[in-house]
Amino acid sequence: MRSAIAIRSSSTGLTSIAALALGPVGPRSPNALLTRSFVPLACLTLLFAGLLSASLAQAQSRRMRLPILVYHRFGARVTDSMTVRTAIFAGQLRFLKEHHITAVPLRGVVRYFLGQAPPPPPNSIVITADDGHVSVFSDMLPLVKQYKIPVTLFIYPSAISNASYAMTWEELAKLKATGLFDVQSHTFWHPNFRIEKQRRSPADYRRFVREQLVKSKGRLEHKLGGKVDMLAWPFGIYDDELIGLARECGYLAGFSIVRRPATSRDNVMALPRYLMTEADQGRAFERIVEGESLEPQPQLENMR
Ligand SMILES: [Zn+2]
Predict the structure, then answer these.
(1) Which of 36, 217, 242, 293 measures 20 to 30 Å from 58, CA to CA?
(2) Can you tell me the distance from the alpha carbon of 73 to that of 179, in angstroms, rounded to the nearest whole number?
(3) Model confidence over 120-171: pLDDT tens digits?
(4) At what angle are helices 202-224 and 169-177 packed, to 10 degrees?
């Protein structure tokens, strides 16, 4: 387990590039003068290759594979495809602790991807939860406190203190007050942007998207304080136009739903997250923690 996690950083390419750098060095020239000149040249080339290898190794250690997990609901029983039993979640947190895998705040990871902070430590993982379901307060909170893990919630404010399945603003404030929860944006009412694009004129669609992004950010900042500049795309739907609009509205990072780890080659406005379901137990959970790229899930219903 530990060794599997330790090899998350890729090591491909190093040998071939070093060999390329060493290419001109060789005893083939019959010219003695040239051969003598090869000695210092060889030293310089070796030194250059060594420096190149060191910087490549450094770059590759930075090119980590970070699993970002997204949960939705918890409960004693599985009532829909988006519920993970609370006991399973508790087991997953215990597993992380026993294997010295650190849950790190999403904010720090985003700062790293933006080039503003050092990389997270090896064997890190990020935990997020979308939609603001009541079970985040009733079931997730006690475990988050017990294990002291940072969690980022992505909330669409139209549901809060409104929909029967959602938390209240007071509950969200209590979560934030623990210092373990960050609350960020999931648009204002969780639209399907693909459908909205089809049924609106281009100008109306852009107005609608802006409104969803600005209103959510404004409401969350007003109600809970703090900076809201991270966005989970509803249903994981995004494209270049949406990314451009999100940037214009003050978002620095966005998150989709793809079952693979985030790497520094990813677009920071569409970082992948593993959508967690009841099936992600035992070995399946280990594969996620190890940062494996997994098969897409069949289209899951009730993704909010
Ligand atoms: Zn959602």
Answers:
(1) 293
(2) 21
(3) 999 999 999 999 999 999 999 999 999 999 999 999 999 999 999 999 999 9
(4) 60
Task: Sketch the domain layout of the chain as residue ranges.
Answer: 2-61, 65-289
**Residue 295 has what pLDDT?**
78
Q: Is 38 within 8 Å of 245 (Cβ atoms)?
A: no
Kindly give the distance from the C-alpha atom of residue 192 to the centroid of ligand 1, in angstroms, as a whole number.
Answer: 10
Prediction pTM value = 0.80
What pLDDT is attached to residue 16?
Answer: 32
Residue type, 154: F
pLDDT given for residue 128 in this prediction: 98
Compute the distance from residue 49 Cα to the ligand 1 centre, in Å: 49
Q: Which residues is 166 bridged to in the sheet?
A: 133
CATH of domain 65-289: 3.20.20.370
Ligand 1 centre and the CA of 127: distance in Å? 15
Q: Determine the distance separating the centroid of ligand 1 and the alpha carbon of 155, expressed in angstroms.
A: 8
Residue 67 alpha carbon to ligand 1 centre in Å? 19
Half-sphere exposure of 196 (CA within 13 A, CB side): 20
Q: Where are the alpha helices (H) located in 32-148, listed in sequence order?
A: 32-62, 86-98, 106-113, 134-135, 141-147
Which DSSP letter does residue 291 get? T
3 Cα–ligand 1 center, Å: 34
15-to-20, 24, 43, 176 alpha-carbon distances in Å: 9, 16, 18, 48
CA of 60 to the centre of ligand 1 (A): 33
